[in-house]
Sequence to fold (446 residues):
Amino acid sequence: MRIGYLECFSGISGDMLLGALVDAGVPIDSLAKTAVALNVGARLEMRKVSRGGVAGTKVDVVTPDHAESEHGHSHESHTAHSHAHDHEHDRGHAHHSHSHEEHAHGEHGAEHTHEHHEHAPHRSLSAILKIIESAPLAETVKERSSRAFRLLGEAEAGIHSIPIEKVHFHEVGAVDTIIDIVCAAAGCEALRVDRWLASPLNVGSGTVKCQHGTLPVPAPATLALLGDAPVYAAGPPLERVTPTGAAILRMLDVRYAPLPAMRVKTSGYGAGKRDTPGQPNLLRLLVGEDDAADAAVEPIAVIEAVIDDSSPQLLAYVSELLLQAGAWDVYRAAVQMKKGRTGVQMTVLCRPDLVPALRDLVFRETTTIGLHWRIENKLALARGFAEVKTQWGPVRMKIARWPSGEVANASPEYEDCRKLAEQHDVPLKRVMQEAMQTYAMNKEVR
Fold:
């Protein structure tokens, strides 16, 4: 399995990810062609820079309105921040999120002013999605980048309690964000990564001034997009995770975890605008592969509660509810408790992100007043299915394989066998035995 790991020790923005992708080996020409294909009047520029003494790649979106080569300004200063408004109130209304003429600490330290952007036109979400859909790009790139913009729109709509159709993006910021997101989707596609992981996010600190007043970092849109992602603040006060960066993380379905065991094949550093003291303003990207033996290792949550005052029927009912709510498995074992009491230990196995919901379900549906949970490692062999023909009908065989591809175990699917046993009034064990014998004799399905 090919893994992309984002080390966000200084946060993440769209242009930082583009820089990291190029630094990790994605040709700048391919990203430049993607930018041109969008036909929004923008192009990419790349240069090598130093941040905290570490070399990185800086990629900028250049438009006729704000070319960094002419003004020394990074497009980070107005990416992603949308303007939510009714059309009748558009005139003279600045976009709601932090106009950088209004605050000292911009996204990754941008400080330039852009008063002339305040009265620039705006683009609706539907118009942006149409630009992406009409571009000659791979469908996977279109799907990912369109999803990112929908997430941005949903975040802004929720913040302002307005329909998503009324969310509009500042014209200049929208161009930058379109390029950032679509080129990021194209660059990630070029790396052929199967799974994206990231470290906890350094979101920065301090405050930003916007039209509605002074707000703390992270900005409202960023916070809404991050959801339950693990965050912290370190380094000089400035905004380190931008709405564009947060939307890209959601677009890639990033899972937050420590750096896994992997063989690093390539790496890259993407640079932010400023060289911040004591905290290199860089995003590091590692691309590598799992060892075959560890390819199926993943975190698993274990929730346990010991109960001594519930009926077996109640606990069976709760087990069914837990499975319906997403638990991988639920099992019960008799235990001897203090003072000679006999009880039942209920154990729930699930994804770590389901712990809050399943924990609450156990409290609500059982009589327990306490439980404990922990995160462990789960290792599973690769599994697949093959179908065999019995005299009563087809049966699926569940096959587990070693990393070498050799079969480790095979068993008939219980539900298939039970259905045939009931339909033909034959013992279940006969159906299962014939399925196993047929599988053993049929080399084609192994």
